[in-house]
From TrEMBL:
InterPro entries: Rhodanese-like_dom, Rhodanese-like_dom_sf
Protein name, per record: Rhodanese-like domain-containing protein
Any one GO MF annotation of this record: thiosulfate-cyanide sulfurtransferase activity
CDD domains, per database record: Polysulfide_ST
Length: 128
């Protein structure tokens, strides 16, 4: 049976807790946190990213997150708290569900990069 994007987002939002920028800042302050930007590189180059975030485009997530993959990124560790975001919150929700499916237990979606910026969150400016 075919599944729609709406259904995929509903399933993702049911298992990945949505948090506010304030909650994300608190979690980051506690340490052992991976802040993950799942936007594509051109988006990040244009707008910047959350300070300290690792950018892994949604299409490469599984390869970077799997320790058995030759493309594994050492920033990923299943004992870390993972906070995801994208441009609007959709890709980060789907990415969060995938990480949960891969065995990451502490996964949260802060949603849109704009929400972080509007809340006064620290960012790294784009390189022009």
């Amino acid at each position: 049976m075919a599944i729609s994007v709406k259904q995929m987002l509903e399933a993702a939002n049911a298992v990945v807790t949505k948090i506010t920028p304030a909650q994300a800042k608190e979690m980051i302050g506690k340490g052992n946190t991976l802040v993950l930007d799942v936007r594509d590189a051109p988006e990040v180059e244009k707008s910047g990213k959350i300070h300290g975030a690792v950018n892994v485009s949604r299409g490469m997530l599984e390869f970077r997150a799997d320790p058995e993959s030759p493309y594994h990124d050492k920033a990923f560790a299943k004992e870390k708290t993972v906070i995801l975001y994208c441009a609007s919150g959709g890709r980060s929700a789907l990415a969060g569900k995938m990480l949960k499916d891969m065995g990451y237990a502490h996964v949260y979606n802060v949603g849109a990069f704009k929400d972080w910026v509007d809340a006064g969150g620290a960012i790294e400016k784009p390189v022009i």
